[in-house]
Amino acid sequence: MKLFHTPGACSLAPHIVALEAGLPATYEKVDLRAKRTATGADFTQINPKGYVPTLQLDNGEVLTEVSALIQYLADQAPKSGLLPEVGSADRYRVLEWIGFISTELHMRFSPLFKPDTPEAYKTILIANLHRRLAYLDEALAGRSYLTGDRFTVADAYAFTILRWSEPMKIDISGYKNIAAYMNRVAQREQVRQALQDEGLLKAA
Ligand SMILES: N[C@@H](CCC(=O)N[C@@H](CS)C(=O)NCC(=O)O)C(=O)O
User: Fold this and answer.
1) pLDDT mean over 26-49
2) Burial letters 85-100, b for 16+ CB under 10 A, else e
3) What is the mean pLDDT of residues 146-159?
4) Binning pLDDT at 50, 70 and 90, where does residue 202 land?
5) Which residues form the GST C-terminal domain (predicted)?
6) Which of 43, 44, 52, 67 for mutating ligand 1's site (highest number of atoms within 8 Å of CB)?
7) Which pLDDT tens digit goes with each residue over 42-70?
8) What's the rounded Cα separation, in Å, for the pair 105 and 178?
9) Which tens digits make up the pLDDT trace of 85-116?
């Protein structure tokens, strides 16, 4: 299977999950402005939505949406523990976090990157983001990861989106639990590998 991705974009989440799960995936970069892949293909022919992440399966089918991809990838390696088994109460906790990250964080951050988003709306989005970050900070008290001691696909997604605080100049240093969490996730071997593959590791 092949993951179409753009360095630092939300496609970093399935990239991390694929590595954490030990899956044999290939990767191809996408220029989101030109809608071209690194091999020169018209990206809209692969995913008519024109956005990453996009996963092309070995049978040619194409799967999109971060939330679907991270679950699909984790389910290819059930022993990885990245997603608890179907029907277990723990799985719904992970899904609950995926919903929160997608709708409360990801979709609030996205318009901040767009130059045509009115400044007044950006201010509202940032205020709302701070409310959600305060909640997240409390939820992380005494926990290594979102659902407890175990790293799950929700952590790959949260880490990916929370990284955007820096380029968007949203100061999260006051959220001590989030700051510690980001460091913890960033030190994971496969997370470092994904960051390195995407050219995002800062030189020491
Ligand atoms: N609903 C999609 C949103 C994906 C998304 O926002 N992708 C961004 C990068 S993080 C993108 O490719 N934007 C380019 C565009 O929309 O043209 C998902 O959850 O996967």
Assistant:
1) 98
2) eeeeeebebbbebbeb
3) 98
4) confident
5) 87-204
6) 52
7) 999 999 999 999 999 999 999 999 999 99
8) 14
9) 999 999 999 999 999 999 999 999 999 999 99
Ligand 1 proximal residues by C-beta, below 6 Å: 9-10, 32, 50-53, 65-66, 102, 110
Phi, psi (deg, nearest 5) at residue 145 = -135, 175
Give the chain's domains with CATH numbers: 2-80+193-197 (3.40.30.10), 89-188 (1.20.1050.10)
Q: Output the CA–CA distances (angstroms, integers) from residue 44 to 48, 88, 153, 159, 199, in the order listed.
A: 4, 37, 27, 27, 25
What residue's CA is closest to ligand 1, atom 20?
Answer: 65
Checking DSSP bridges between strand 62-64 and strand 2-5, what pairing results, if any?
unpaired
